[in-house]
Amino acid sequence: MSTGARRILANTGYRLLADAGSKLASIAFYIVMARELGAKGFGVFTFGLAFVILVTTLGNFGQDSILTREVARDRSLLDSYFVNTLALKVVLCAASLAVALAAASAFGISAQTRDVLLLLGPAAVLELLMQTCFASFQAYERLEFIPIALISQRTLIALTGIAALVAGAGVVVVAGIYLAGTLFGFLLALYLLRTRLVRPAMRIDPRRWWPLMKAAAAIGLAGVFAVVLFRVDMTMLAAFKSASVVGHYAAAYRLLEATLFISWSVSSAVYPVFSRLSPVSEPPVGFVFERGIKLGLALTLPLATGAAVLAKPLIDLLYGQEYADAVGALRLLAPAIALYPVCYITASLLVSQNQQRALLIVYAFVAVENIAANLVLIPWLSLYGAALGTSISTILVAVGFLAFARQRVDYARVLGGPVLASATAACVMLLLRENFAAAVIASAIVYVGVLVLFERRLFPDDARAVLDFLPGRTA
Predict the structure, then answer these.
(1) Residue 322 placed within a domain
(2) Considering the domain boundaries, does residue 384 fall inside one?
(3) How many domains, in total, are found in the chain?
(4) Which residues contact 143 (CB under 8 A, 6 or more apart)?
(5) How many CB atoms lie within 10 A of CB 349?
(6) Which residues of the chain have pLDDT under 50?
(7) pTM for the complete prediction?
(8) Distance from the CA of 8 to the CA of which of 298, 312, 337, 345 falls in 20 to 30 A?
(9) Angle formed by the axes of helices 260-276 and 285-309, to 10°?
């Protein structure tokens, strides 16, 4: 296996470790929070987090993607990009948060919700600063530092938060713990960057901010529409329905979010490689793109299948029967689980090839579509309408990105194994659905077995690339 392919798989593994470990901690935290605070308190926290992420979108104006792309091509550029990206994020986030919190207070939000927003707002900013450190690791293709920082941050929040919740803490205290944990995570990521990899210059030059904004404008605006697209459903649901309904939807949506680390992991690994390749390079960028899509789908399609078939026992196990309405929402969100890697990896390809305007066009169109759809679907179908709208919009994003990418994709090669293996695993899940643990274990074994047999028979080169990376095998 080539050094480049080995590096992509290694970095995918590091990012998977980071996000899997952090998601396990986060899921435990959210499950305990949902149980201890009840649907109303859980709804306040999830609404607050969605609100501040939505508001601070302008602080994440695509600078990280530009930093990774340009530094991957020329590492000396980190000195001019790193600290100015941090400073620009802080300025933009502080302004947008101040305006949004003032507006929210004017509209008469409760004192509890206001306090939660005041704590989660700075936390959202710190997480954006942490992402700039991760973008620097990504540019150097040294993703092994990400799991150290991310797992440490999320584990600290989870352990402290769970202990506080069990002791009777309310949602405001939990929000404060979340803020303290994100501060720790950012400081740890910065420490790792400066002591283990490179010490970027820390000279802030406001004259660099406008060129940074201009270079990242299309990505930034696309990011604004993307956050609106993927967060506005929670906000609109809160406007139409009670906090309890929001809590039920949040329970299902958190499980969707728990799978996104796979898409991030693969796209994080291939993005700096995309940035150095072109349609006429060796290998061509389309070669890496096709296999990246295949890897992403192979990892997420069985999870989407499980969410659709085993939604009820999964929700009952994690949240309890109080959250029965989340079952239907999770089933409706299942298509999005499978399609997110297509969206993320194709978006990385477009940005790497300086086609970031395509992101803006697609996200803007679909964000408007999603808002319009939610205005109809939420009053009609409540949380099920929000879930259905999310999956429809994800399909539209994937189709739009692929159309702009204009890459030849051998869909039989990409989809054949994952689809056949997932269909077989679904049959096993249905047969064993009364025993959740047995259904999960047996279907996972069947999925891997069918996928490996299919790939080794029809596409042995793809199978060999993965098998060669396993411990104990030589290149």
Answers:
(1) yes
(2) yes
(3) 1
(4) 10, 11, 14, 15, 18, 137, 268, 269
(5) 28
(6) 1, 469-475
(7) 0.76
(8) 337
(9) 180
Residue with tokens 């590091």: 14
pLDDT at 445: 97
Give the single-character DSSP code of 307: H
Lookup: tokens for 85: 């990206």
Question: CB neighbours (10 Å) of residue 60?
Answer: 28
**Residue type present at position 460:** P
Instruction: Give me the pLDDT at residue 470, please.
Output: 45
Query: Which own/partner pairs from 316-325 qualify as long-range (CB within 8 Å, at least 24 positions apart)?
Result: 317/436, 318/27, 318/31, 318/251, 318/255, 319/31, 319/34, 319/35, 319/251, 320/35, 322/39, 323/34, 323/39, 323/247, 323/248, 323/251, 325/245, 325/248, 325/383
Which pLDDT value is given to residue 474? 40
Q: Say which residues have a Cβ less than 8 Å from residue 372's Cβ, sequence separation at least 6.
A: none
- Which amino acid appears at position 453 of this protein? L
272 token code pair: 């700096």
CA-to-CA distance for 55 and 100, rounded, in angstroms? 7
- Domain holding 358, by residue range, is 3-409
H/E segment holding residue 452: helix 436-458
Structure-token pair, residue 42:
């859980």
Residue 472 lies in a domain: no
In three-state form (DSSP H/G/I as H, E/B as E, the rest C), the secondary structure along 273-341 is HHHHCCCCCCCCHHHHHHHHHHHHHHHHHHHHHHHHHCHHHHHHHHCCHHHCCHHHHHHHHHHHHHHHH
What pLDDT is attached to residue 475?
A: 37
430 belongs to a structural domain: no
Give the contacts of 119 (CB within 8 A, at least 6 positions apart). 172, 175, 176, 178, 179
Tokens 């936390």 locate to 123
- Here the tokens at position 9 are 């798989």
CA distance 208 to 206: 5
Q: Is the dihedral of CA 473, 23, 427, 439 positive or negative?
A: positive
